[in-house]
## 1
Amino acid sequence: MGLFLGKHHKGNPMNYTIGQVAKINQLSISQLRYYYNQGLFPFLKRTEKGNRVFDHDALKFLDIILCLKNTGMLIKDIKQFVDWSMGGNDTIPQRLEMMKQQEINVLQQIRDTEENVIKIQQKIARLERERKKC
């Protein structure tokens, strides 16, 4: 998934619609609406017509939300992180601890995946040996 920030116009940062952001990040509009309804985007602004728009800062925040989601963090925990982030610098210790714990979790996932790759490679080797016997 790629974060695309686009070009900024003089004093007028670009805003992106939910559809554009969905396409940029290879998500469905319904996924983004679900995340919005779960309280993950309290920072989104709305146009005069009431449409949600993502500015540069919102796209950066979305990037970390997707990172956390893609590394297995539960929506409720991501919401806690978002809530703490909206709380300002007083919540830095809680956010730091949450990120350190997520790092531990992701490193364990990597170790588990590496172990599974070894098992798969061993199975491939056994099957190739069996095929040669036939």
## 2
Amino acid sequence: MMKNGDAKVRHPHTRTDHRLEISITELSCAAESAPLARRLERLAGVREAIVNPITERAVVRFDAELTNTADIFGVLQRLGVDAGAKLVRLHAPVLGCMCDDCRQRLEERLAGVAGVEAVHLNTDEKSVTVEYVPSRTDARGLREALTGADSTDCCSPDPRDKT
């Protein structure tokens, strides 16, 4: 029989579940990475934080309604961690239409944000992964581009519909 604390509770993926992959440097060992992960997990909305000094990467799963990438970077900055200097990957759900026209508009909106290096849409998962350099990226522009994708109305009318 399992008691509370015997197993880590897994939160289900939701429409606000985001994953942020951050390049980190200057962590020399697991003894430095474990406290950093615990500090990130204390941030409201952070569901899981994994910090790996060997791959020089931190992966943070968070609820976008409770926290945001600026809060996560703020924690890292206050702890003196050199984070995101190389590349960051943000994985987020797309709630709107995924027709060809809407996918193209989303890709163009995201690619038009300064510092965005790549945009990968997954139509099966209805998600997008954006690779960007934080020092060159306007986080507000990224949020606005993603928010604009959450329209539930399809933007491309069926050309066969003559009504």
## 3
Amino acid sequence: MTSGDTLFIFSLIAIGGSFFVLGILTEDILIEILKKRSKRVILESPYAGRGLHNITDPFERAKVFEQNVAYARMCMRDSMLRGEKPIASHLLYTQPGILNDDIPEERKLGIEAGLSWGVAAAATVVYADRGISEGMQKGIDRAKKEGRPVEIRRILP
């Protein structure tokens, strides 16, 4: 163990008014145990993909956006029915009052916040029926860099 490692007490036993530590865990070991017990995954699907930021017609933009959100919800359902515990940060951080995906700095902040959950994820699952957007590619690249498995999925007929 190196200095600065966080210790977690695994189990205590009390004997005659004294406590004895039966085991200790470092933060890294605890994260590995959590990954094995519950398959937490980072879910990637298009949000602003397919050139959404480049579409000038507001009606077409709204249509593509709605399709991407509906697809992301289908992906969340698929992942959960597989027994996974997905996080889809693009659905979470872009809700009204949180971050504005149309502001590049806020979009970057949201992508980074979502990718930071990678330390707790067992895998990155990529739903590719609607293509792979720039943001999704960043998630794939980050997973590979961190040694996290990447699984490409398709759920549409």
## 4
Amino acid sequence: MRKISTCILYLFLTGFLLSCDNSRQANNLSPVPDTIRGSATDSTGKIPPVRSKTDPATTETPDSSQIRISVFKNSPQQGGFGYDIFIREKLLVHQTMVPGRPGTSGFNTEEGAGKTARLVAKKILDNTMPPTVTAHELDSLGI
């Protein structure tokens, strides 16, 4: 009985190790054609911005007149405040919780949500993407 269980164990381990051998599978993969690979980058080797066919100006960095901030009160279940940032009247950021902090609670004050929204809007204007907010930045805003 012991010999049978040892034999089964060896067979199982051998099968497992052989199934992990990727060298046979790698030879069956066809390479990506250069035409596809080359179309993802421009002449500098960087990925070009995606252009909308309906709005060619969507790749331009917005100016301050094209950004609108809206502070709102969250649902009673979540509590606190949040903010929306619109670029050219299209919603770009919908933030219901304090970014850069653990948890899902909203901002304690409307003013705190507004300060953070202005910081994120400034980062968008500076073309800092994604416009992340650090705990240090929240502390400097008094949040």
